[in-house]
Specification:
The complex is a heterodimer of chains A (321) and B (223).
Chain A lengths: L1 H21 L5 H21 L3 H5 L7 H8 L14 H20 L3 H18 L6 H15 L8 H12 L12 H25 L3 H5 L2 H6 L16 H21 L6 H18 L3 H11 L5 H7 L14
Helix pairs in contact in A: 2-5, 2-7, 2-14, 2-15, 5-6, 6-7, 7-9, 7-14, 9-12, 12-13, 13-14
Chain B lengths: L25 H24 L6 H9 L1 H6 L16 E10 L4 E6 L8 H18 L13 H28 L3 E11 L4 H5 L10 E10 L6
Antiparallel strand pairs in B: 1-2, 1-3, 3-4
Classes of the chains: A mainly alpha (321), B alpha+beta (223).
Chain lengths: 321, 223
């Protein structure tokens, strides 16, 4: 009996593992994430242009000496460590922006996705003192978009393939094929997101203010973060308490409740005001938006295709079946 | 009827094609499964090991996969606003110009740093200086910390100094007519809701405190 139990356990685990990771998946969700994350990657690096030498040159705020001391004998590589002149820095930066732009619109995506990941990591490693959550999520998404066929939908690559297919006689162009690697990339985003929310929430359990229900006040009443004056909340302490409890409980339960199909829409629905709240009230629009983009990994390709249907006859969204 | 928002009831999001289970060979699936397990282990172990407190086991495991974590920028703790949202920090600096003027500036600054993402880069730099220098303003006396902690104290103090010098050197280069620069770490605490109800503003002077970070001349950097 015990042997039968373990046999069934192993067999059903193996079946579940295969179904979870190796089922082909429509590429629509991954394509949409590429469009949006690509925009964010391009914007993030475009903003570096406003003070490029100040952050990335050897004479900038973050000197090579600090980098050596901070990283020590580490594998935190960056091609920008080799830069000696501002002209060279700008040259490399313009190339990086071109690559990121191509990735954003989905041109030569197989190559530009790999280069975009390398660029994102390289810039992050060169400016360790100036990073925040946005850079972590950018790097995560760039990594998984590199693994999957992120240019198979909603991309210039797709459009070009569609036109080529039309010329070859296929009505509506060549259809987008489901892909196992699209499934793996989406699953990795989903799981990584659960890890992020899990550690973000359990870390908060060590803090007194999250138990006292005052953490939201401390975050939103912080003048340096604040982009919307919400000091009126001070007159409503219970409201602050409720907001604190909801945000913590949502984060804590995310990794469990986002998987069942009945609770998933609710979890994703709450993510919107929570992350938009961070975006609007705390001046972190980029971070709030990129978290929502990452959450799209839990939206079905079917819903994505239904929503992003702006040109019914376009090869950009050719139906699979 | 299938709900569009919820997606398919079984094999959620995956397309049921006839060859779904055979599209990758078993050998290839085994190989990819091993890679996935190593990757997921790394993704979980990184925030488990750092920041402290963490177990000796998780730190040892994180060390084993640290080349991968570092190279792929996966060595993150993900403790956003944890354990508690703390006070914010700014760096105030005084520039002594060669004509005798003394001007005061600070970063981050909403007036100087636009768009908001650029402001946030400067903000994080001030927070980094604070995390390195702030908690260790004074060396704790004997008996309060052990030898390992004292060694870590000196290491962090030195790292903070290197970053402060980097920033000071950059600011002096950016202002060729400045002879000397003095930097201060400003801590800005958030008032309680009760304080605000009693009329205190978020930028009330009583909410700010300063810690001198250093005083540097051009000759110090041989500029």
């Amino acid at each position: 009996m015990i042997r039968a139990y373990f046999r069934e356990l192993i067999e059903s685990s193996s079946r579940g593992w295969n179904t979870f990771w190796f089922q082909p998946r429509d590429t629509a969700t991954l394509g949409l994430i590429r469009c949006l994350a690509g925009c964010m990657l391009f914007y993030t690096h475009l903003v570096w242009s406003l003070d490029l030498a100040g952050f990335f040159s050897p004479q900038g705020r973050i000197s090579n000496r600090f980098l050596y001391d901070f990283y020590g004998q580490s594998f935190a590589w960056s091609h920008l460590n080799l830069v000696q002149s501002t002209a060279m820095l700008w040259c490399l930066h313009l190339i990086a922006l071109s690559v990121l732009f191509c990735f954003m619109i989905g041109l030569f995506t197989r190559v530009t996705s790999i280069l975009s990941f390398l660029i994102t990591v390289s810039y992050a490693h060169r400016a360790p003192g100036a990073l925040f959550g946005l850079d972590q999520i950018n790097a995560m998404l760039a990594m998984y978009l590199m693994i999957g066929p992120s240019g198979a939908s909603y991309s210039v690559d797709r459009w070009l393939r569609g036109r080529a297919g039309e010329r070859a006689g296929a009505a509506g162009g060549e259809p987008t094929m489901p892909s196992v690697s699209a499934n793996i990339a989406t699953r990795l985003i989903q799981l990584h997101l659960c890890v992020i929310y899990f550690f973000a929430s359990t870390g908060k359990l060590q803090g007194i203010s999250w138990w006292e229900g005052t953490a939201m006040w401390l975050a939103m009443g912080n003048l340096e973060y604040q982009s919307l004056d919400v000091t009126w909340l001070g007159r409503w302490p219970w409201l602050i308490n409720i907001m604190t409890h909801i945000s913590l409980w949502w984060e804590l339960s995310y990794s469990a409740l986002v998987w069942p199909r009945l609770t998933r829409p609710l979890v994703l629905f709450i993510a919107v005001p929570l992350h938009l709240g961070i975006a609007c009230c705390m001046g972190m629009v980029t971070f709030g938006v990129i978290m929502l983009v990452a959450n799209l990994a839990f939206v079905s390709p079917q819903l994505v295709r239904t929503t992003v249907r702006w040109r019914p006859a376009s090869p950009w969204h050719t139906e699979v079946d | 009827m299938q709900c569009c928002i919820l997606g398919p009831a079984r094999n959620q999001f995956a397309l049921n094609t006839t060859d779904s289970s055979t599209s990758w060979s078993p050998t290839w699936r085994w190989f990819v499964s091993v890679l996935l397990l190593v990757h997921l282990f790394s993704v979980v172990i990184a925030p488990l090991a750092d920041p402290p407190p963490s177990s000796e086991f998780s730190r040892a495991m994180a060390r084993a996969v640290s080349p991968y974590l570092q190279a792929a920028a996966l060595d993150n703790g993900y403790r956003f606003f944890a354990p508690d949202p703390g006070p914010s920090h700014l760096v105030r600096y005084e520039l002594a110009w060669s004509d005798g003027r003394l001007t005061t500036h600070h970063f981050p600054s909403r007036e100087d740093h636009f768009p908001r993402l650029l402001y946030h880069r400067h903000f994080m730099l001030a927070e980094m200086i604070s995390s390195l220098a702030g908690p260790f303003a004074e060396e704790p006396p004997d008996g309060f910390i052990n030898q390992r902690e004292r060694s870590a104290f000196h290491e962090q103090k030195q790292r903070a100094m290197i970053l402060v010098e980097s920033v000071a050197s950059y600011l002096l280069r950016s202002h060729p007519e400045v002879d000397e620069i003095r930097l201060f770490l400003v801590t800005h605490v958030v008032p309680t809701p009760a304080d605000v109800r009693n009329g205190m503003k978020l930028d009330d002077a009583r909410l700010y405190s300063e810690l001198p970070l250093g005083r540097f001349t051009r000759s110090y950097f041989q500029l």
